[in-house]
Amino acid sequence: MNKILTILVLCIAPVLAACGDLSPKLPAGSQDESEFTTSHGAMAMYRGSMGFAQEAFKSFVSVTGLFTDEFIDKRFDNPNQTGVQPTGADSRQIDPVSSQIRSLYHALHGVRSNATLTAYSLKTYAQELPSSYQSHMYLLHGYAVIMMADFFCSGVPLSKIDPDADFTYLPGSSRDEMYMQAIALLDTAVLLAGDSTYLKHAAHIGQGRALIQLNRFEDAVQKVVNVPDSARYRLQLTLTAGFLGSSVVFDGNVADLEGKNGLPYRSSNDPRSRSQLVAGVQTPLKYLVNAGNQIAWLEITNGIEARLIEAEADLKKSGTLWLGILNDLRSGGFTVSQSGDTTWLPGTGGFTELRPLNDPADTISDPVDAARARIKLLFDERAYWMYLTGHRQGDLRRMVRQYGYDSEEVYPTGFFGNSGLAMYGSDVTAPVPETEYMYNKLYEGCINRDA
Amino acid sequence: MTYVKTLVLSLSVVMIFTVTGPVFSRLHAQLPDIASTTKNHNNAFPQESANVLDRVFNIAVKDVSLKDALEAVRKNAKIGLTYDPSSIPNKKVSLSRDRITVKEALEFILKGTGVAIEVAPKGNVMLVPRGKDGSLQADSIKARIRGRVLDSATKEPIGMVTVSLQGMNIQQVTNDLGNYVLPAVPSGEYTLSFRLLGYGTITRKIVISGKADVITDVALAPMRTMLQGVVTTATGIKRRVEVGNDITTIDVEEAIQNAPIKSITELLETRVPGLVVQRTSGSPGDPARIRLRGTSSINGNNDPIVVVDGVRVYAQQSDTYNNNLAPSKARAVSNRSGIPVASPLDQIDPNSIETIEVFKGPSAAAMYGSDAANGVIVITTKKGKSGPLQWSFNSSYGISKIPGKFPNGIYRYGSEPVYGNTQLCTIQEFECQFDSLVIFQALNEPRFSPLGTGNESDMSVSLRGGIDNIQYSITPSLARNVGVLKLPPAEFDRFKKLNGFEPPRWFNRPDRYDTWGMQATVNMNTSKDLRVNLTSMIFNSMKRNSQLSLNGVSNLIARKIDTILNKNSPIFSSAYEKIESQSLSTTHNVQTIWQAREWMPITANIGLNIINRNEEAIRPWLEQPIGPTQDSVAAYGAGRGQTMNTTSNVFTQIPLLQQKISLSLGLNYNGSNLSRMSAQSTVPPQRGVEVPTSNLTATQATSGSTTFGWFIEPRFNLKSRFFASPGIRLDNNGLAGSRAGLLRLPKMNFSWIASEEPYFPQTDVISMLRIRTGVGVAGVQPGPTDRLRTWSPVSGNGYNNAVIPIYAEGSRLGRLGNSKLKPERSTEFEGGADLELWEGRVSMIFSGYRKKRYDAIVSVPIASSVSVGGNPSMNTRKENIGEIVNTGMEFSLDAQVIERREVTWSIGFNFSRNANEVTRLNAGRQSIEISDDNSGYTRIIPGYPLNSRWAKPILGYEDLDGNNVIQLSEIVIGDSLVYLGSQEPTIIMGGNTGVVFLNGRLRMNANFSYTGDMVQHNYVASRPNSPLNTAANDPKSSLAAQAASLAARNNLTQYGVMQTVNSFRFETVSLSYVVNSRVASFFRARNMSIAIQGKNIGLITNYSGKDPNVNTFTTGNATADDGALPQPRVWSLRVSLGN
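Above: the input entities. Below: the structure tokens describing the complete assembly.
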């Protein structure tokens, strides 16, 4: 009997003990998951999401700047550089295996993932913090979706990451579905913003930006009508070690009349796109920061965009206010400069170089041509005001899609670079990288690559 | 489900044998003569109890004592007769009669004595005195028989000895302390037998006449049989015969006696069927990887685990931790990730080891748990021995050299057409005006070669002794190994001329590996029920290398002659860097064996293994540097690392049902922590001067894992010839911050000594035949943080309202993690037979196995729509989706060919074949590309071996213009990759032979190894513009060689320069001689021997490069042709003394 009892005890006791948790914990300072299930951890994620978003958004501005007429690869801007074959976004020939596009695609989805998990952690573990912290994550999430909808083909999968260590793949969403999802995310941002007006304003402008892509101009105006001129949402940027005692954010060439259709960002001497030659590279003054001042800001949106939306909505309905709005912007004096930028002073009386605009219809008799000239004027104004803020690609697509322009009338076209041999491609959107097809079995490819 | 199938298969095998039993019986029935020789040869008494009293016999005694009359009955009637002589009255009796029954005879003899006649169940006749009331008195006179069983040779206690009382149904098995107790034996005269396979059976006559314990201690003499002895399993010490697996045991003391052996790797190589040693280099202290029955893991570990005296020790051979933690400028110029540090396994001094047991796969290693799928190497260190001090001393000295010459380079010089400059030009460069051919190889030129003569020496002392209750053993050792690398004389002179002094020794002779250490054991019997074993090991190693170790060979192997001969430029542009790794490994173990109950011994041990590593890499500032690139480069790197393993085991073995079942129960805890830190500075450290942070980089990493296991293993013993042993282990694994569910690791094995069956035909040829099968499941842990969702630091962020500080630290997702990740699991079916012929002079072991790794961990890419940020190619997580199958067979043969007093000759041979196949990756994954650089493709693809070699085929070539030179346009290359073969050898052979002459005074031993069917990349032939590449420089070379070389040089395909390599290597030859005792006495010793050994004395291979068995990487290429040092040839002399 003793023997049986002993055996039973020896059998059962260890099994019970084996069920206990013997997991060693990572030492303090390690990036252990459990460290993020606290208020402190949620804040660390919040800061991390912010930091990651600024890198991703900067990449978006940079790559879409190359894709459109804002930037040109500095190799192709160098008269002495010949024989370089065009590749990637700059020449509008994007391969689905392009590492440049894959990185951007990956980074924008990374903003979504990080924002999703951070919002969850803030809600769960940092309830003492204002809900505006969560709002901020929805804002980043919404903008990331807008950027993907602006640049990538219709049919980007918006897969979901779960708060536990799992995820759910999803099939592709159409372009319009993506904009609608962005609007919904920004709605949540508005709801959670509380007293944070700057978040509310940024969310409303983002909604306006998405709504005009959906051709819902009146709805867009409703969203931005209460956004003041002074609203601004921007992210602090990490500086790249620069040239000649300066630091630069975008170490790239400001384009000038790129591919026939490009705007004269350099030669127009427009203060909104002014640039400076730094060690042989034409660098945007807006994002060139003196070494002594290590702060640079990436403008995501501001009150100017709200006014531009109102102007476009007015023009769209053949109103009479649009030109006045544009001229008010030119003379109104908005503070859109960089701290330390002595060329572009904070405005209190507008930019002296920016003379009032005239209505093109005044000099064009053909009403169709006049209408197109007005649209062109409006989009040019948008291009300068929102130079290097990541809006140009969405605008050019809208010019094709909503206003009937041929893509070869608005995107850079013709001969590419200095070789005199290579031509621009015909892409108006970027393809979803091939790796998505390979690993996400629900994904069946772009719905279309049209504007 | 797979396990169930395997189980059914193994049961089927057993059933087949069970069914074939009667067949043997029928055979036996047809061979009455043989039957009569086998029947009852172990039984002294008839078995038919019912008829024993009716047996008829003749008796004729006259006027003898009752006892003598009873003995006459026993003898004449051939019955078993048990009685207490004291209970038989002293009177005379006479009886003479033919054909009387036993009953009649006994009744007549015992008439009036009051002694009753009883028959025991097995037919033994017992005479039992009656009390006054007429009742039987036997029950009231009972005593215990107890005692201890020792090995007559070693005086060590022997467990698992079957002790039985003949004629009685009483049987016991000795425990680990050799003790046994037979309780409540009635008075009488008995024969006690002691039986254990591997030892000669002995019997003792005993008499029980009262209640006092009868103590019978015996010593069993070992006999030669492959199944003798015991095996140290995870659940305790088992008799080898019971274990249904082929577990290779190496008698280290014997191996060392025959030849100077320097490392455990040397001990294992050629001696274990199915074991492959992959050498990373021939430099002293560079680690070797050990693979048992092939690799099985894609992204996980393929190293076997190592257990020393029950303590799990850190012995990883292939993880990144094996690289130097002090990365320095060395990495920038190296094609490798760092200087390898010594293998922890090889830090253990072979002189301190008694035996090594190798459990090759999950079927044998299941009870070792969730880390044992790659096999287990169990090391048992030396134990103390009772008796006067025994001492031995070994010292050896050897010299090493790289054997043979490196292939000559062919330098084809010509002039460039436009400017007429002299240049090297291949035969394809037609515009070059060829004018001269120079044949040169700097590695073969003493003035320029960094290959010199190395030396190695070692010394060890072994002291053993003790008294009955305390024994001790101490084995200190010391070894020094200077590698073959040296600064070439030309470079030495240059340095001296520039600096005015000779280069420091570490620079001149950079490769060095020094070790010292000690193993000590104390074994105590603190009481009759408690034995305590204390073991400690301390081993220290210092491994030193310089930049020369990394690029000394590779830099010269294909170097242009003009750059070597130019006196104004150094041969090595950046050789001035010292890298040292010092490692201190300590292992301590306390083991207690406690006889808690008569029937329950408990074994417990607590062990701790700590390895502390300190490393330093320094490139000092030199006023007059030898190379132009290092004039202003100074760097310093330091690394600290610690691994700590804690082990705790408690287990017991409980006998049940008269020893027919033995139940093992136990707990096992293993904890492992690894921490490491390294820092680098681009300025050299100076005392009291703080290094600016801008010059510093530092990294730190920690990880930890725990395993808590519980096992139960009943073992069934049927008639001591059929053994079955099912079992299950439950593991609770914790990895840094995460935990998987309870892991179930079942196993089952059978061992059947067919030759012990009564119906087995008895001949002089077959002395033992065992059939065995085993199936089991074991695992391999995932990486410490593979389950975790981790975050990466992000800094320097803010936004316009500056709610958070601008440069506040933050974290973003770093890795997705997989909370459902489980350890990899392997199931293995093993079956085989052991055969002994001519009383053990020839023994053969055959095993076949099928090992399936399922739930293999594969790094799976995640689509970017679930992005964590960072590098897209790093957007992965580990999943249990792979499946790899290894099938193979192993055969080993040991034979005593000549066995005479004046000469004996023994041979040993083993052969194994392993076929490896990836059977599944996952639904969406067709292949994993390991490398696609100019070394050719290494892929993991279902249907082919792990890390298989692939290349685009050369479909054809034709010398269209008839100039005997193949040009690129004349080669046709296929578009798709084709399979070339496995990187691992599929055929492995090892062998040894030993001859002993002059009554054991002169011994000669030789070992060889063979690896075959291994596809190796021949870097020599493919290196672009290499002068070694004869096909590129010699117009007389064959068109096929030209095509192969040209395609490889232009990175079109490596097809033509991949070789299926077979290599036969004479590993060692040794000669040892026991010198005259008078000479020994001069050193105050009784024994003295001298041994000479040659290591790596010959290589026969079809490989056209230097050494096909050296490869730095686990996958891909960094062969000896690519700069890794080939294995040196070593000749050494050893002197051994002892008492």
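Note for the figure: Residues 335-349 of chain A have pLDDT under 50 and may be disordered.
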